[in-house]
Structures are given as structure tokens and as C-alpha cells.
Write a structure and sequence with these properties.
11 helices; about 15% strand
């Protein structure tokens, strides 16, 4: 069975994309699923979060593939300290692509080189900018998970991503689906949070609004220690929320 490919995306930065990519992937790996993270964001933070450290010049990276499409995608894969979890890191020196670059390259590589057959889950961490890296992720994915912080500006980012989602779905990837909207740093006692959730639920459907991830300092501390939160503080609210998120998403793929 081919891997499920999920892109973690939002047009606004600072919405918990990498935190979600790392901790969701680690949770699936912890459950025995062979899981691959592909970091398309040139900030390169996913490598830190899974314990591979900061980017070092000369690393095989996903951005190297876009410079040289003849590369074997499997040659870019790094082992991580987390059992069952693998990483293709980002190139922090990457300075973007020309507009005429092939945004279907990643999709073709994942299928043609049987990488999808070697993993059960593939998680794409994406940049917040509307560039060819984000479009490439959406073109390759089966579904999109949209983390957001419940205030007005990130609400705008979700709406902007929805426009891009529609464009990619109608031009590059007709099978692309919205997995769900994931509120991050959620506090349901705050009126603004509740109002944003209500507006987005009305726009996208209540069935696509996930239970969310609460504010929890352990999530940031885990990154500082180079560990997924389930390895750093297994009983904290952040670890519980990503455990429950993995449960929610399993019902989506059924």
C-alpha cells in the first residue's frame, strides 16, 4: 500500500507548521508506522525538531533535487534518532526557484522511485510563502492539514491558502483534499479564539475543524532539546494533543 502524503501548510508564518509536522510524524512513528518528513521550508527547523541538528553545508537535501532533478530521492533520506522516523532536510542556503521550475517534480519522484511504497506516512513541511516549494508540496500531497493560531491575521492566511488549494487542485492535483483546520495555541476561554473558530467552521464546515493543540511551553522546550514532545515530556498537554490529533486523522484516511 502506498504511503499517505500530507502537507502541513498555511500562507502565514508562525502558525505551528513545523511543530505539527515533527510531532505528528513522531506520533505515527511511535505507533510503528514507517514515516518520512520532507522539509520544503528553507528555515530547516524540522531537522532540529527530530534531533538531527542544524543544517550543515554539504548535507543531501530536498532542495538539491530541485537543482538537479536526476538525483535519486532515496539518496537524500537521513535517519533520525526516533525509531521509524526518517527525514529529507531542507537546504538553509536555498534562495528560491525560478517561476518556470517544474512543480510536479516531487510528485513524480515520490511515485516513480517507489518511495511511497517504502513508507506508510509522508509528511511535507512547507514554507509560508506562495512559491514553487509550497505549490510542489500541494501538487504531491493527498491531503492538506492547515494549522493556524486563532486570530484575525492567521484567519486571512487560511483564506489565502484556500485560494491556492483550489488553483492547485484544478491544475496539478485533482485528488487533493482538505484534511482539516488545526487551531494551535488554543484557549477556548478566549472570545476571539471562539469567534475565529466559528467563522472558519462556517466557511469550511464543522467536520473540518479539528480539536486543536493547546498552549504548552513543553512544545517549545522539546524543540530546544532536539526531541519530539512525546520523547521530551510524554505526559504533557502538548504530547496528548498530538496523540489525539493522530487519532483524528486516522479516521480521515479510512
Amino acid at each position: 500500500m502506498s504511503a499517505r502524503i500530507i502537507a502541513i501548510a498555511n500562507r502565514k508564518g508562525g502558525t505551528g507548521k513545523t511543530t505539527t509536522a515533527v510531532n505528528l510524524a513522531a506520533e505515527w512513528a511511535r505507533r510503528g508506522k514507517r514515516t518520512l518528513i520532507i522539509d520544503l521550508d528553507s528555515q530547516g527547523h524540522a531537522a532540529i525538531g527530530v534531533g538531527c541538528g542544524e543544517y550543515e553545508k554539504g548535507w543531501p537535501t530536498i532542495h538539491g533535487l530541485f537543482r538537479n532533478p536526476e538525483l535519486d530521492l532515496r539518496s537524500l533520506i537521513h535517519k533520525t534518532p526516533v525509531p521509524n522516523l526518517f527525514l529529507i532536510p531542507a537546504d538553509c542556503d536555498f534562495d528560491g526557484l525560478e517561476n518556470n521550475q517544474d512543480v510536479s517534480l516531487l510528485r513524480r519522484k515520490l511515485k516513480a522511485e517507489t518511495v511511497q511504497e517504502e513508507y506508510q506516512m509522508i509528511v511535507l513541511d512547507t514554507p509560508p510563502t506562495q512559491d514553487n516549494m509550497l505549490v510542489s508540496a500541494l501538487a504531491a500531497a493527498d491531503g492538506v492539514l492547515v494549522p493556524f493560531i486563532p486570530h484575525h491575521l492567521t484567519e486571512v492566511g487560511v483564506r489565502q491558502l484556500a485560494k491556492l488549494f483550489y488553483r492547485v487542485a484544478t491544475t496539478h492535483n485533482a485528488d487533493l483534499k482538505l484534511v482539516g483546520l488545526l487551531p494551535i495555541m488554543l484557549d477556548r476561554r478566549i472570545n476571539q479564539h471562539q469567534q475565529v473558530l466559528e467563522r472558519l467552521s462556517k466557511r469550511f464546515g464543522t467536520q473540518r475543524m479539528l480539536r486543536g493543540v493547546r498552549s504548552n511551553i513543553r512544545l517549545a522546550e522539546a524543540f530546544a532539546h532536539g526531541k519530539p514532545v512525546s520523547d521530551y515530556a510524554a505526559r504533557c498537554p502538548g504530547a496528548l494533543d498530538y496523540y489525539l490529533l493522530a487519532n483524528e486523522l486516522e479516521t480521515f484516511w479510512q
